[in-house]
Amino acid sequence: MQTAWLMALLGGSLIGLSVSLMLLWNGRVTGISGIINGVLTPIRGDTEWRWYFIGGLLLGGFGMNLWDPSVFYGQLETDTWTVVLAGLLVGFGTILGSGCTSGHGVCGISRLSPRSLVATLVFIAAGVLAVTVLRSLGVLP
Amino acid sequence: MKNNVSALIVGVVFAVGLAVSGMTQPSKVIGFLDVFGNWDPSLMFVMIGAIFVHFISFRLIVKREVPWFSENWHIPNRKDVTPALVWGGVIFGFGWGLGGYCPGPAVTSLASLQTRPLIFVASLVAGMLIFRVVDKKVKFKK
Questions:
Q1: What is the DSSP string of A77-114?
Q2: By the CB < 8 Å criterion, does B73 face chain A?
């Protein structure tokens, strides 16, 4: 239990470090949903860095998978349609709400943005509600 | 070119942070959101760690005139809380609770070559594209 907390704190600090480097180097907020959305409408001069960032995520992911594949375990034993629906909702919702866990939850809260504080409280509350309801309906194990 | 290499490095560190923290394990994320059931609060420390570091670094970094590899800052400064912001959060949160993935961990998990992250990311991209189509008709005030 304690190890999980320490790993969470360590991983979180690395996330904090990476978004700080993005700000220091490129002057940007590290919002994953916004970065992905940006490559879907390529704008000259504002697309390449996004692909490099996504490439970095994959490279880091490959490295972690080699080092300890168990970091990617824990897939839910739910029907495939739930994965599709979840992806659709996350894609649609993050663009409507202008951000996700990284852009609002980490970058926005760190600069005390009122929009990000509200968005983060809302999506965590919605996530808690979703899990509570889906558990009781038997959709989630 | 410099800002591409920097984005790549940021991506690597971000992915390692996500994987180390437990955010790339959907069952763990569901455990974190299962506040009224079998709650596993450990992932709270991901946000605490990340915000602790960036709360301090943000204030130091923006004292600079400009970033290293850009002529200006690209930091959002809107303050208005809109229905789109709230409803977007509701929809995103519901999807997060259903699938156990938010965008960063989902993309990072593609590297594990499992099927479910791939289906999730493809659906996420589809969701973003559907947003555009719906937005053209409805004109959400973001």
A1: ---HHHHHHHHHHHHHHHHHTT--IIIIIIIIHHTT-H
A2: yes
In order of A93, A95, B89, B124, the CA distances from A84 in angstroms are 14, 17, 18, 8
Report yes or no for ipTM above 0.90.
Answer: yes
B75 touches chain A (CB under 8 A): yes
Per-residue pLDDT tens over the stretch A102-135: 999 999 999 999 999 999 999 999 999 999 999 9
- Distances from the Cα of B141 to the Cαs of A58, A91, A100, in angstroms? 33, 17, 18
Residues B48-82 have pLDDT tens digits of 999 999 999 999 999 999 999 999 999 999 999 99
**CA-atom Rg of chain B in angstroms:** 18
Contact criterion met (CB below 8 Å) for A139 and A122: no
Give the residue among B101, B95, B34, B7 at the shortest CA–CA distance from A72. B101
CB-based contact A18 B17, cutoff 8 Å: yes
Q: What is the pLDDT of residues B1-39, one digit of tens each?
A: 889 999 999 999 999 999 999 999 999 999 999 999 999
| Interface check B118 vs A, CB under 8 A | no
Whole-angstrom distance, CA of residue B87 vs CA of residue B81: 11
For A55-81, what is the mean pLDDT?
97
Asked if B109's CB is within 8 angstroms of A89's CB, the reply is no
Task: Give Cα A7 distance to the centre of its chain.
Answer: 17
